[in-house]
Amino acid sequence: MYLEQESFADAVDLLERCLAITLEADLRHLEGRTRANLARSYVGLNRFEEAETALRQSLGVFNRLGDRYAVGQVLKNYGLGVSETGSSIRSSPRPGGASGSCRPPVMDVQAIGP
Fold first, then answer.
1. What is the predicted pLDDT for the residue at 5?
2. Is the dihedral angle over the CA atoms 76, 82, 86, 90 positive or is it negative?
3. In this structure, are residues 32 and 54 in contact, taking their beta carbons and an 8 Å threshold?
4. Which of 2, 10, 68, 80 has the most CB atoms at less than 10 Å from its CB?
5. Which residues fall within 8 angstroms of residue 108, CB to CB, at 6 or more apart?
């Protein structure tokens, strides 16, 4: 709900609490989904390093579970989030000293695989 409303700060608060519960209860699939949603929320807040960490952790969970469908969904949804916000994990210097980039992040999917 918070993601749909783009209330990313509220979403992060709720998702971090949810993540703690999933880890305590050893609910791996839900952990992967929660980490993916955290990644999307962090992008919305321009917290790109945290977004990339959460994304990689989510993909790691699903790869360990052998859920290739979930891996695809995570990458698709993350890409949509990045394109909607016009944000990028990596910003590059621009001529004249300006910084920032609207290019989507470069993810080496082969490096993320099993």
1. 55
2. negative
3. no
4. 2
5. none
**pLDDT at residue 46 is higher than 60:** yes
First to last CA, the chain: 31
Compute how many other C-beta atoms are within 10 angstroms of the C-beta atom of residue 30: 16
Cα–Cα distance measured from residue 68 to residue 99, given in angstroms and rounded to the nearest whole number: 36
- Type of residue numbered 104: P
Q: Which long-range contacts (CB under 8 A, 24 or more apart) does 85-91 make?
A: 85/43, 85/44, 87/43, 87/46, 87/48, 88/48, 89/43, 89/48, 89/49, 89/51, 89/52, 90/48
Number of Cβ atoms within 10 Å of the Cβ of 73: 15
